[in-house]
Amino acid sequence: MTAHPNLSHDTIPGASVPAWIAADWGTSQLRLWVMDREDTVIDRITSDRGMSRLSPQDYEPTLLDLLGDHLPTGENSPLPVICCGMAGSRQGWAEAPYASAPCPPPGIAEATQPATKDPRLAVYLLPGIKTTDPADVMRGEETQIAGYLAQDRDPATSQVICLPGTHSKWARLEQGEVTSFSTFMTGELFALLQGQSVLQHCVSEEGWDETAFEQAVREALANPAAIAAQLFRLRADALLSGQSPETGRARLSGLLIGVELAATQDDWSGQHITLLGADQLSRRYETALSTQGCTARRVDAETLTLAGLTAAYDQLKKSQTP
Amino acid sequence: MTAHPNLSHDTIPGASVPAWIAADWGTSQLRLWVMDREDTVIDRITSDRGMSRLSPQDYEPTLLDLLGDHLPTGENSPLPVICCGMAGSRQGWAEAPYASAPCPPPGIAEATQPATKDPRLAVYLLPGIKTTDPADVMRGEETQIAGYLAQDRDPATSQVICLPGTHSKWARLEQGEVTSFSTFMTGELFALLQGQSVLQHCVSEEGWDETAFEQAVREALANPAAIAAQLFRLRADALLSGQSPETGRARLSGLLIGVELAATQDDWSGQHITLLGADQLSRRYETALSTQGCTARRVDAETLTLAGLTAAYDQLKKSQTP
């Protein structure tokens, strides 16, 4: 059922009583999972009330509004809300200061608890991770990594994971710790160039050309420094040889992902890596890597976010057990 | 005097009778110079009625409106308007098809004459230049190059020129011809990232940090493939070490220009090059090149545009002399 144009509920039939709330509160989107005591998802709520639209005093009313009937009644103890993402940033609800890599993904012990007026809520904001030389930050991805490590068959092994997205991350994991990571503005560059640059008429919003994508990946890897010229060439090819906007779209994606792969070559060349991301974008990275003979395993990011939040809730339960 | 908020006139006192109009009609801006028979500027008019705001039928009324009292009266012959830039593109007033490099900058003989209803106007749209493998186009810069070649003491020499701008161009000139060129989206990337990306709060609209600029140029040249990570680092440095938005601005510029220089290294390394551009941006390229031991000469682009349009008008006069 849809209770609001920008809000969707997927209620699971025969659901039991809410035991806790898992929350991924990002810049533009908020996802809530209403969980029972068996860590089964009772309800899944998505909303566009992300950090960029909220002041600190807006977070609690937003939660109360979206959770509605799921809030405890009577003499119950407060409902724990375990939250990752930008709500814990300095511009968010309350700051959950970054942990410093190398470190394990921060858990409930490092969480910040913002003051709430309503006694039915007990909110925990999980921190992100930073590195200082060179400076880099993640906030939200560390919880996916926590979920990945919780499921990993061999967490002691040194390995590289890539988290494609608006700001894609490449992280090295060792002995259950994030030892280093690097962020690339690849996804945001794609969105800006596709939607707001001179390329907007030669790069479509939909459609695809797999051959052109793979060719563009190879071109960018062969000469990454030429990226600003290769981008303009999308316009010139459209003007001079009628290149379709769908081919333009695939080429733009291939060029930008190709440059990212050129920068991370030491991380994936001759190695097995794991892609933690949404399905479509992860497949593109998988294809791009396959043009270079690299086989990548894909794991669904949303599943891992929920696994990471569940791991944090388990820590909370243990800490509260006498 | 200012006749309109988006229109400025600089009338030169004691001016004589208009003999022709020089026009640089770009995507976002229109510049008109009212010229006398001695090729002296009588009036300079700028307007924001660029191609992006106009349909084909809007161009003639725009000219009539802006030229006003400068239009001939009575039985005079029509006033030639020599025009370079996007007005001659397929989306402009009328298409002036590209000349193919290698070629001299196209002149009056290659110009397209759009039909005009008013007999007081005789409009000539100068073509741009294209290359096909790889595809690239210029429209407007070829007239600056024509002006540069008209002033050049030794046009037979092979040389490289760089035209910094929204879409900066690197062109090789030989025997008065443009033999090859390449376009970089550097300026547009800067504008998008400064104004519309996650970097907008850590990159100021004004201010500068010369040391940070030079350091960023060096970093980008040393590892151009890492550009998408170096961009995100601007945000991380602002978050973690309080890097000022002025330093962020200079670093963003340095990173993007540095990547352009990495791609064009064969063109400038160990050579003398000439920068044709607006003062401030040209100085940045000059500084960036100087970090690599390359000395560049700067020439003002607007002066060259006018010189190129004047050269085309001279050709028109000669063609009309019996």
Descriptive account of the structure:
The structure is a homodimer of 322-residue chains. In chain A, 48% of the residues are buried. Chain A folds into two domains: 7-139, Nucleotidyltransferase, domain 5, CATH 3.30.420.300; 184-301, 2-keto-3-deoxy-galactonokinase, C-terminal domain (Nucleotidyltransferase, domain 5), CATH 3.30.420. Chain A has nine helices and 14 strands. In chain A, strand 2 and strand 3 (30-35) form a beta hairpin. The longest helix of chain A has 20 residues, at 301-320. Chain A has 322 residues and is α/β, with parallel strands linked by helices. Chain A has a six-stranded mixed beta sheet, covered by helices on one side. A five-stranded mixed beta sheet of chain A has the order 12-11-10-13-14, sandwiched between helices. At the A-B interface, strand 9, strand 12, helix 3, helix 5 and helix 6 of A face strand 9, strand 12, helix 3, helix 5 and helix 6 of B. Chains A, B: Pfam families: DGOK (PF05035). Chains A, B: It comes from Phaeobacter italicus.
Q: Could you write a compact summary of the structure shown?
A:
Two copies of one chain form a homodimer. Chain A is α/β, with parallel strands linked by helices and 322 residues long.
